[in-house]
Design goal:
The protein is an alpha+beta fold. The chain has a domain of about 160 residues: FAS1 domain. Helices cover about 45% and strands about 15% of the residues. About 15% of the residues have low confidence. Bound molecules: 2-acetamido-2-deoxy-beta-D-glucopyranose (6 copies). Belongs to the fasciclin-like AGP family.
């Protein structure tokens, strides 16, 4: 009696532990197919710029300047209430670290406001629109024309910006839905109208020694760009192939161990 019970028990236990039984158990209850929830109501066209910039980036420095100069209201108003829309170029926090301290701290509040306005165009541009814009350079910004204009060039899909002092590029698109475009740029844009046209000649591409610029001038930001470029290059293909190799070897090893046990 007892003995046969044990056999039955242990055999059911054994059976329930076999992969087959396990698979059956898992597979048996037909998973309830999730009924597609009704599509959310179309969100209102309102884009909260503060909200957007505080979660992306990090763009804390730029956002702080936007708020302290109240330019955020100008931009938000343009986004809310115009058909033209707005395009904003937002430097990452790193870009502010790479600036010479004096270049922003010595500005008057009015100049600072102009500098922040200089980071936007009073019109919505998708990335593909810049190919066209490169033919009409210089382009007036929110801060104005002349010394507050930016030149754009499109080289095989990469949008480059040039303010004279700052040569940089759009490094990613944060948001681009008419009427609001927000693009990340690698550098703070310094306008000639504030920093003058006496721009130190950019040294020919000699990336190695980071020649520090002279006393009072804002960092001629090409040196920083050249320095940071290699780090941004995508991992090269032989590295990736090595990675695949390691994984396939791991899989083979595990398979070998399994075979030993079976
Ligand atoms: C926009 O977003 C900010 C930050 O999330 C929030 O404090 C503010 O209330 C929002 N403004 C509106 C009008 O919703
Ligand atoms: C923009 O629109 C939002 C939502 O309608 C509103 O709360 C906010 O005050 C507006 N801001 C400006 C500057 O017009
Ligand atoms: C810039 O500001 C610093 C103090 O923050 C001051 O020592 C320096 O003289 C100022 N330079 C100019 C050109 O105003
Ligand atoms: C730019 O686009 C407009 C229409 O959107 C077109 O009329 C104009 O010819 C274009 N300019 C160039 C230089 O391609
Ligand atoms: C922008 O382009 C115009 C016309 O091609 C040129 O005269 C000007 O020097 C350029 N400005 C900068 C900052 O490169
Ligand atoms: C890719 O990386 C390997 C070493 O990981 C290096 O030997 C090779 O030169 C690199 N190739 C390129 C194109 O950078």
């Amino acid at each position: 009696m007892k003995f046969s019970m044990i056999i039955v028990l242990s055999s059911t236990l054994l059976f329930s532990c076999t992969p087959l039984a396990y698979a059956q158990k898992v597979a048996s209850p037909p998973a309830p197919t999730p009924t597609p929830s009704p599509a959310p109501a179309p969100s209102p066209p309102y884009v909260n710029l503060t909200d957007l910039l505080s979660v992306a980036g990090p763009f804390h420095n730029f956002l702080n300047y936007l708020e302290s100069t109240k330019v955020i209201d100008t931009f938000q108003n343009q986004a809310n209430n115009t058909d033209e829309g707005i395009t904003i170029f937002v430097p990452k926090d790193d870009a502010f670290k790479n600036l010479k301290k004096a270049s922003l701290s010595n500005l008057t509040q009015d100049q600072l406001k102009q500098l922040i306005l200089f980071h936007a165009l009073p019109h919505y541009y998708s990335l593909s629109d810049f190919k066209n814009l490169s033919h009409v350079s210089p382009v007036s910004t929110f801060a104005g024309a002349g010394g507050y204009a930016l030149n754009f060039t499109d080289t095989s899909g990469t949008v480059h910006l040039d303010s004279g002092w700052s040569k940089t590029k759009v490094s990613s698109s944060v948001h681009s839905t008419d009427p609001v475009a927000i693009y990340q740029v690698d550098k703070v844009l310094l306008p000639e109208a504030i920093f003058g046209t006496d721009i130190p000649p950019t040294p020919a591409p000699a990336p190695a020694p980071d020649t520090s610029p002279t006393a009072d001038s804002p960092t001629s930001d090409d040196s920083a760009g050249a320095g940071s470029a290699p780090g941004k290059s995508p991992p090269n293909s032989s590295y990736r192939i090595n990675g695949v190799g390691i994984w396939s070897q791991l899989v083979l090893a595990i398979a070998g161990v399994l075979v030993l046990f079976l």
